[in-house]
């Protein structure tokens, strides 16, 4: 006979086996459901776009989704064939949901060509009733394989032919270098080739993104045409894109001020102004100099103060000169190119001052594709999608412009960010900041010197290391006594803990979490996320954590320097705001567990 204790052990063991068996069965059932969903999705690929998009519920744009889908369904792929293997998909059950990895290959179908690239497409699935929806599509590696193969098999990509078509231009550039230190760019406009020439030292720093912060010194730039005629004397800091704002004109920059030349070599406006804004409605040019506005009429007669009309003033003061949609790219502007085979088809645009002084674009933007030669550059176009002006104080406003970049060799195909520009009452740019918003930015005046802005992160539709998502981004700006602004920096993801005494509004909202393979809604941040919030405050002072989960939170954080073994060692170093917020969090999630070895 068994002892009672032995019977209990057998019962417990049987229950454990039963539980494990049920768990495996349930997981197997979910996997079967996933494969049914994948089969349904695959069978729907030939259907219209609208039908395919019903499978998705993601902040990713329809353009991004369909670019990958079009490859999967072999739409307009010419000499390339895609072979996805949905039946061999690998399925992973993770904390943030179900990850499905589908093998896929792209092959050349050209006669006599045998090329093949093997890759993967990753889908993230979430439950919806008795089926699923795709919450995210990752196809970077897959799409890059397609682009790489397309470039190898594209019949229009003929390197020797393109180099031959540029031979006379390259030869002329070498000839001009007998007269100038460098010929850095050339551009073709109205059947004429123009060369950007430099005396002094010049490097195209913008070609490498890691060096794009560097600036030139000890040089002067000018412009000559293919006959050697000087269009712009070699005495300027920068010569702009030909015809960017007005036909047959070019903006020039000298000592930080801008002016205009026409392409006959005549100076139209001396380089004495901070900004030149064309006003098409009245065929005038509005100029700004040291916060004072004036204007030129169509005959370039100068009126030194004010505006030509109330509507012209409104056009400037309300930033209407920044159109709701504006595109930079080969189809819209004349591109400069470097006269060197190494940078073949690498396009360059130098925007006008009203775009650069307002902080929307950099002075020099490179990497635009030219024709079908996707060899050195991958940006097809950059597009702005409206600007919104918000009053912060009676003297300071914020201008937010959405910028979308069509990038042909990247993770998303479209990269979107928002450019925040603080301006004063004279529309002088005070500071700029890049945001990744996904919705409206909210501004809040915390006190006389502090402005808070919060927004949902455009790319935070999945968990980012916390149990709850999406978590809002907070940024802070300091208002200086001289009516300028300073953007405040923080090491913390939850930056409000550093600058603001918290209340419950920072912990409440509309959040989601993933529980038992199902997405749940929350209105208050979970304890685990609040613990991460508190850990950031302590980590900022070098507190050493004991629990492995706390240590792992800062495993890859460069700014974290663990130094102190106990809270008492950092207590006197805390700011008043940090003391307050730690006490506030203690009321919500309990006291800090001290190091047992202290």
Task: Please provide a written account of the structure.
The chain is α+β, with helices and mostly antiparallel strands. The strands form 8 sheets. Strands 1, 2, 3, 4 and 5 form a 5-stranded antiparallel beta sheet that branches. Strands 18-22-23-24-25 form a 5-stranded antiparallel beta sheet, with no helix packed on it. A hairpin with a 2-residue loop joins strand 15 and strand 16 (292-296). Helix 10 (527-539) runs antiparallel to helix 12 (576-589). The chain is globular and about 75 Å long. Mean pLDDT is 85; it is low at 1-25 and 594-598.
In whole angstroms, the N-to-C terminal distance is: 54 Å
Strand content: 25-35%
Structural class: alpha+beta
- Name the average pLDDT: 85
In short:
It is built from 12 helices and 31 strands.
Please name the defining characteristics of this protein:
alpha+beta, 598 residues, single chain, 12 helices
Chart the SSEs and their pairings.
Blueprint: H1 4-44, H2 49-53, H3 62-72, E1 80-84, E2 90-94, E3 97-108, E4 116-128, E5 131-138, H4 140-153, H5 159-165, H6 167-176, E6 182-189, E7 192-200, E8 219-225, E9 230-236, E10 238-239, E11 249-254, E12 257-262, E13 267-273, E14 275-279, E15 284-289, E16 292-296, E17 302-303, H7 310-317, E18 325-329, E19 336-337, E20 346-349, H8 353-356, E21 365-369, E22 379-391, E23 396-407, E24 414-424, E25 429-435, E26 442-445, E27 450-455, E28 473-479, E29 485-488, H9 496-499, E30 508-515, E31 518-524, H10 527-539, H11 548-553, H12 576-589
Antiparallel strand pairs: 1-3, 2-3, 3-4, 4-5, 6-7, 7-8, 8-9, 10-11, 11-12, 12-13, 14-15, 15-16, 16-17, 18-22, 19-20, 20-21, 22-23, 23-24, 24-25, 26-27, 27-28, 28-29, 30-31
């Amino acid at each position: 006979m068994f002892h009672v204790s032995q019977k209990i052990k057998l019962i417990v063991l049987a229950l454990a086996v039963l539980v494990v068996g049920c768990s495996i069965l349930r997981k197997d059932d979910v996997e079967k459901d996933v494969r049914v969903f994948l089969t349904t999705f695959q069978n729907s690929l030939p259907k219209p776009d609208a039908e395919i998009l019903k499978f998705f519920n993601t902040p990713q744009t329809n353009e991004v989704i369909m670019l990958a889908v079009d490859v999967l369904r072999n739409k307009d792929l010419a000499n390339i064939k895609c072979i996805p293997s949905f039946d061999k998909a690998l399925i992973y059950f993770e904390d943030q949901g179900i990850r499905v990895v589908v093998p896929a290959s792209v092959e050349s179908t050209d006669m006599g060509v045998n090329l093949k690239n093997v890759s993967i497409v990753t889908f993230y699935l979430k439950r919806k009733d008795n089926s699923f929806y795709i919450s995210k599509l990752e196809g970077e590696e897959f799409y890059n394989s397609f682009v790489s193969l397309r470039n190898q098999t594209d019949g229009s990509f003929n390197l020797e032919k393109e180099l031959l078509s540029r031979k006379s231009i390259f030869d002329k550039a070498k000839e001009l270098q007998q007269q100038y230190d460098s010929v850095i760019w050339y551009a073709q406009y109205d059947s004429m080739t123009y060369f950007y020439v430099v005396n002094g030292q010049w490097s195209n720093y913008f070609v490498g993104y890691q060096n794009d912060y560097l600036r030139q010194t000890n040089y002067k730039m000018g412009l000559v045409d293919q006959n050697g005629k000087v269009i712009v004397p070699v005495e300027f800091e920068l010569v702009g894109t030909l015809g960017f704002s007005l036909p047959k004109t070019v903006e020039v920059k000298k000592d930080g001020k801008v002016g205009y030349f026409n392409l006959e070599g005549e100076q139209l406006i001396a380089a004495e102004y901070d900004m030149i804004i064309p006003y098409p409605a009245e065929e005038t040019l509005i100029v700004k100099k040291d916060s004072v506005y004036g204007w030129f009429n169509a005959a370039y007669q100068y009126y030194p103060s004010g505006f030509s009309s109330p509507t012209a003033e409104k056009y400037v003061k309300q930033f209407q000169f920044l159109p709701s949609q504006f595109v930079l790219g080969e189809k819209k502007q004349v591109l400069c190119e470097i006269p060197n085979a190494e940078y073949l088809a690498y396009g360059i645009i130098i925007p006008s001052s009203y775009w650069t002084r307002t902080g929307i674009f950099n002075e020099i933007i490179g990497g635009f594709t030219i024709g079908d030669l996707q060899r050195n550059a991958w940006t097809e176009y950059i597009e702005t999608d409206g600007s919104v002006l918000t009053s912060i104080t009676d003297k300071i406003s914020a201008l937010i412009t959405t910028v979308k970049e069509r990038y042909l060799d990247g993770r998303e195909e479209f990269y979107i960010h928002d450019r925040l520009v603080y301006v004063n009452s004279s529309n002088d740019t005070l500071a700029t900041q890049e945001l990744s918003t996904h919705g409206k930015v909210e501004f809040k005046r915390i006190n006389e010197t502090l402005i808070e802005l919060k927004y949902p992160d455009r790319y935070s539709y999945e968990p980012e290391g916390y149990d709850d998502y999406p978590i809002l981004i907070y940024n802070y700006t300091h208002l200086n006594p001289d009516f300028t602004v300073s953007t405040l920096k923080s090491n913390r993801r939850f930056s409000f803990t550093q600058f603001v005494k918290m209340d419950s509004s920072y912990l409440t909202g509309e959040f989601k979490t993933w529980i038992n393979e199902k997405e749940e809604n929350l209105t208050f941040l979970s304890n685990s996320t609040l613990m991460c919030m508190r850990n950031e405050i302590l980590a900022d002072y070098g507190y050493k954590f004991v629990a492995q989960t706390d240590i792992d939170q800062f495993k890859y954080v460069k700014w974290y320097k663990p130094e102190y073994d106990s809270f008492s060692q950092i207590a006197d170093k805390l700011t008043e705001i940090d003391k307050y917020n730690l006490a506030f969090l203690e009321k919500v999630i309990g006291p800090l567990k001290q190091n047992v070895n202290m």
